Amino acid sequence: MAATGRQTAAADLAASLREAGFVRLAPAATGDGVAAAGVLARSLSAIDIPYQIGVETGETSRSTEADVTLALDRDQPGVDETLGTARPASAAAFEVARTLDDQSASVAVAAAGVLASGKEPTGQLVEAIAEAGIKRRPGVTVPTDDLVDGLAHSTRLHAPFSGDPDAVRNTLQNVSIEPQDDEERRRLASIVALQVADAGDAATRAAESIADALRPHAGGPLVTLEGYGDVLDAAVREDPGAAVAIALGHEDARADALDAWRSHARSAHETLAEASIQRHSGLVVAEIEGPIETIARLLRDYRSPEPLALVADEDRVALAATGEHDAATVLETATESFDLSGRVAGDADLATQQYPGDVERLVAAIREVNRDA
């Protein structure tokens, strides 16, 4: 959509929200979804519009109590408006929030949500980031001042030390873990990048993926915007209440959100490190018990030699795809003849589906889709 079209859409939605007696925000359990909810809620609060935030893990239905119901980062029927289908929900929410009340529109939350979605800020958000004095700097994207803690639990990268603070300390024993200048930060980033790229099980793509964890935007409530987005994305899957609270700016929720982030990261990294990965033409598969969305993303970016990564637990599957494939479309096409409850959720990068069935059958169906593409 052209910029003028987006501005018109933002103004129209803002007008509807101003007239609402009560607004329901229904974000997906993603960093982008919960950040978008935080951005909108702050501006609704500033103009005294009551709202409710309910993180959605299943089907969204319209609330009879709400004048306006918004789905955020998930395409769902039965709502008044959906943000996040064509671009990150946080970016769209930021434009609406600025129209509602420019002073309360949080650039840090919006940018963190966009970065959590795997995209880069564009348009109004880039200008707002610059106006806020937030700049990129050398180093690694972490959400804590404790670099060992930040690297051990980051889900923006997967390295031999991931999930293990002692392993991080051993890796960084010849570099300052409290860098004081850009030169020290560059050295640190180089060591981390080499650890990722040279890992014995690393895919060729890992050397490209690690770039997304370097040169962070320094600022925001959690050291870097990328680190803030990482915490939102991990915490909302473990402790939605804590994730919503830090998206709203509640300082007393920070410790709980960081604890949820650490727990999520340890589970994801440890499970991925121990997973048995099956390789097929165009697809790798791991059957695990753990946070499937995060594991699928990390598997795709750091360990998969193929463009699609499928992760399955007992009840659900997550499919992560590189740019030449559309994860949601592939999963929808592969399962369209299956008798499944629920819809495919997600987007081109990462999609999920309730799937308690035979994984081998699904693998065969996905491979068939790939052959027909």
Describe the protein's topology.
Layout (H helix, E strand, L loop, with lengths): L2 H17 L3 E5 L3 H16 L4 E3 L14 E5 L8 E3 L5 H12 L6 H10 L6 H9 L3 E2 L10 H7 L11 H7 L10 H16 L8 H4 L7 E2 L6 H14 L1 H8 L6 H21 L2 E4 L2 E5 L4 H12 L4 E5 L3 E6 L5 H9 L9 E2 L3 E5 L4 H14 L1
Parallel strand pairs: 1-2, 1-3, 3-4, 8-9
Antiparallel strand pairs: 5-6, 7-8, 9-10, 10-12, 11-12
Helix pairs in contact: 1-3, 2-3, 2-4, 2-10, 2-11, 3-4, 4-10, 6-7, 10-11, 10-12, 11-12, 12-13, 14-15
Oligomeric category: single chain
Globally, the shape reads globular
Give the SSE string. Answer: HEHEEEHHHEHHHHEHHHEEHEEHEEH
* Strand order in the sheet with the most strands: 7-8-9-10-12-11
Identify low-pLDDT runs.
none
Helicity range of the residues?
A: 40-55%
Mean pLDDT: 93
| Largest sheet features | 6 strands, mixed
Tell me the structural class.
alpha/beta
Total of DSSP H or I helical runs spanning 4+ residues: 15
Rg is 20 Å
Count of folded domains: 3
CATH class of the largest domain reads: Alpha Beta
Would you give the CATH topology of the largest domain?
inorganic pyrophosphatase (n-terminal core)
Total strands: the figure is 12
Please report which band the strand proportion falls in: under 5%, 5-15%, 15-25%, 25-35%, 35-45% or over 45%: 5-15%
Gross CATH architecture of the largest domain: Alpha-Beta Complex
Span between N and C termini? 27 Å
